Amino acid sequence: MDVRYYFEQPEHLAALREEAAAWLGTPFRYGAAVRGAGGGTDCARMSYAIFTAIGATPAGKVFPSASADYTVHHADSPIDDFFRTELAAEFERLPVTADGAADSAIRAGDVLGFRIGKAVHHLAIVIDSGRMLQCVKPHGARLVSLQDSTFMKRLAVVYRRRGEQPL
To answer: Label partner for 55 (CA 20 to 30 A): which of 6, 10, 49, 96?
Structure first.
């Protein structure tokens, strides 16, 4: 079966949704990736941990660290650099137009990169046609609407997992 995108396969999408549900309620804790009420995570490490847990990204890569206010002072994005280099084989980087519209329709399994300050500094995973999983202070990991203009007006990039490839 020739599948262009990883989450076109129902079993992959089901695994994503199951793993994402396990992270709900995890408190925000910068630089961590421990799911559950007693753990803590940030948006980027949660995204990478979920994709690694379901076999969609290779394990063992070190997600870059940057202070919470890094993109207030810098125009480069350690998150975007990580996708462009460490995860380039697994993910396509889909541009977003100046008005914040993705060049292709956003779909379940996409990782959305949001501009905070001068560069991409927040991630969320699209769970279904109307919701995304994100982790922010003070709410922690939760599902929010894709119509939430607080974030969607800051959409800068869509990372889409390519189809089956050996990891």
So the answer is: 96
pLDDT digits (tens, 9 = 90+) for 1-58: 455 899 999 999 999 999 999 999 999 999 999 999 999 999 999 999 999 999 999 9
Confidence at 167, pLDDT banded by 50, 70, 90: very low
Residue 76 backbone phi and psi in degrees, to 5: -90, 160
- Which segments of the chain does DSSP mark as H helices, in order? 10-23, 43-53, 70-73, 78-85, 149-152
How many Å apart are CA 16 and CA 158, to the nearest integer?
17
Closest of 86, 82, 105 to residue 94, by C-alpha? 105
6-161: CATH topology is: endopeptidase fold (from Nostoc punctiforme) (3.90.1720)
Each domain of the chain, given as residue ranges in start order, spans 6-161
pTM here is 0.92
Are residues 102 and 96 in contact, defined by beta-carbon separation less than 8 angstroms? yes
Mean predicted lDDT score pLDDT of the chain? 90
| Residue 131 DSSP label | E
Token pair, residue 48, equals 């990478």
